[in-house]
Automatic annotation (TrEMBL):
It comes from the Bacteria. InterPro entries: Methyltransf_11, SAM-dependent_MTases_sf. Residues 43-135 form the Methyltransferase type domain. GO terms for biological process: methylation. This is Demethylmenaquinone methyltransferase. The keyword Oxidoreductase does not apply. The gene is menG. GO terms for molecular function: demethylmenaquinone methyltransferase activity; S-adenosylmethionine-dependent methyltransferase activity. Keywords: Methyltransferase, Transferase. Its EC number is 2.1.1.163. It is an enzyme of class 2 (transferase).
Amino acid sequence: MSEQKSFWDRNAGRYDRFMRKDRAAYEEMYTLIRPVVKAKTVLELATGTGLIAKHIVNAAAHIEATDASAEMIAEAKWDNGSAKLHFSVQDMFCLPYADKSFDVVIVSNALHIVPQPEKALAEIHRVLKEDGVLIAPTFTHAGNSFSGKVKAFFMKLAGFPLHSRWTSEGYLRFLRQNGWSVRKSVVLKASFLLTYAECVKSEGQDVIF
């Protein structure tokens, strides 16, 4: 995680400006998420500067928003105006929370940038209640146009930690293969195609931790 952490630490101060071009897609995503988190206890992984958490916290009962980057969490904390929202530095592969602690887990635009994302999904499976919901929107770079693929190539040259390239269909298949039943999916238009996935635990399928 050290390579990834240093990249996000270096870019924490400009992250919000970088994401402004995808504001419309994120507004759609907030609209999809709010009904799911209504009056629920939520864990967000890879929160970054807290963009999603801050836009949905009024609907939720409580949100624990975490990130591996201390600089990202520092950016997130400075304008946090809600007592229902708590930010902390955590490793998504080794979370400090008890089994079945949360009603909803959100991991947005992160599974494609971490090595061994299936291990992150296993840890999410552990901390999520049996009837809980996983919300996992992710940029699906492999489904982009030629210009989008060129942009991704140059981002990687700049140090962006892109580990997985999925199409939308390939990403949903990956989730199903790792213990999740996809109950809703939507492809949103952003700088890169953004596949919103809403999942529940697959019945009768054991996940190895």
